[in-house]
Predict the 3D structure of the following.
Amino acid sequence: MNSGGSALSLRRWWRSVGFAWAGVAHTYRSQPNFRIEVWAAVTALGLTVLLRAPLAPIALCCALVLSLELVNTALEAAVDLASLERHPLARAAKDAAAGAVLVASGGALLVGVSVLGGALWSRLT
């Protein structure tokens, strides 16, 4: 398959960005959990800026959760495409990918509470 030119080609890079953005947009349209996570990230990032708290840990956690949800969606689609029949290994793969999102979400919550909790408490009292 022709790669469309040099790996350093700006045109090729923009084309790749377009494909990636199409994946994000499809996931946003088709996955309710991703929409919830996007708006939770927007809220967390807005609160971080409002409270003048450290942005990096919150942004990193948001990116991690959203990225894992995208990977989870891709894995589920690939497993569904590979076999229409139910199979214990397919279920294990899907459950493990969903578990990765759950673990990252729990970690993000802990980071959010530790980074934003004190700043929010100070503002409220």
Notes: The chain has four helices and no strands. The chain has two domains: 1-30, 32-124.
